[in-house]
Structure formats: structure tokens, C-alpha cells
Amino acid sequence: MHDKNHTLSQETKDCIVECFRCVQICEECSDDMIGMDHSGDSQMMADCIRLCRECADICALAGQWMSRSSSLTNKVCGLCADVCDQCADLCEKHASHHALCGPCAEECRRCAKSCRQMSRTSTKAA
């Protein structure tokens, strides 16, 4: 049950900000890649677009759940961290072919770190 008097910790607020920053760059990165020349490694490009979109989705969900103090915050943040790491791994491989993949990977790493910490600290609340 939600506690009406509950205020979000600074750590939670910071994690929410990181999640929504990650949403923004992942959406921008994937959208920009859609119009690119896919003649090189078209499968890697398709995988990168898909993973960026999936990362944006889970980051948005994590931010929303943290904002409402969900008792499942630790679980969604753990998954978010895993997806962010996967997205960063692929974007790093693709960074030499796409200008936004480097910054996307960096933001995914920051978000993963913040969500991983949140998943550990909010476990006791679940």
C-alpha cells in the first residue's frame, strides 16, 4: 500500500532523472538510426535500434514506478540495469558508425549504475 506521507529520497529522485535521460537518448539514437544507410552490418543496426527502444521502454517504466514508490522498485530497477548494460554494450560496438551511439552508451551506463544501486537499496522495502 502506498504511504501518502512518503517522500522520495534524493537517491530515488536522482535515479528517476537518470532513467528519463536514458529514455531521451535511446529514443533519439534509435530514431536517428532508422534513416541511416544499413549497407554495412544491417543486423547489428536492427538489433541496436530494437535494443535502444526496449531500453527506453524499461527506463520509462522504472522511472514511473519509482515515482509512485512501487513496492516492486527493486525488481524493475534490476531489470532496467541489465537492459541498460546490454544496450550500452551494443551501442559501444556501433559507436564508430553512428554519432549518437557513444553518448547513448555512456548514458545507459550511468542509468544502469544508478538503477543497480536502487535495486539493492530498495530490496528491504519490497
Structure write-up:
By secondary structure, this protein is mostly helical. It has a single domain (10-35, 42-125), classed as Substrate Binding Domain Of Dnak, Chain:A, Domain 2 (Up-down Bundle), CATH 1.20.1270. 75% of the residues lie in helices and 0% in strands. It has four helices and no strands. It has helices at residues 10-34, 42-67, 73-94, 101-121. Helix 1 packs antiparallel against helix 2 and helix 2 runs antiparallel to helix 3 (73-94). The protein is elongated.
What are the main properties of this structure?
126 residues, mainly alpha, Substrate Binding Domain Of Dnak, Chain:A, Domain 2
Secondary-structure map:
Layout: H1 10-34, H2 42-67, H3 73-94, H4 101-121
Helix pairs in contact: 1-2, 1-4, 2-3, 3-4
Cα separation of the termini? 11 Å
Number of structural domains: 1
Write down how many β-strands occur, each being a DSSP E stretch of 2 or more residues: 0
Category by helix and strand content = mainly alpha
- Whole-number radius of gyration? 15 Å
Note the beta-strand portion.
Answer: under 5%
Bin the helical content: over 70%
The tally of helices reads: 4
Biggest β-sheet strands, sense, barrel: none
CATH domain class name? Mainly Alpha
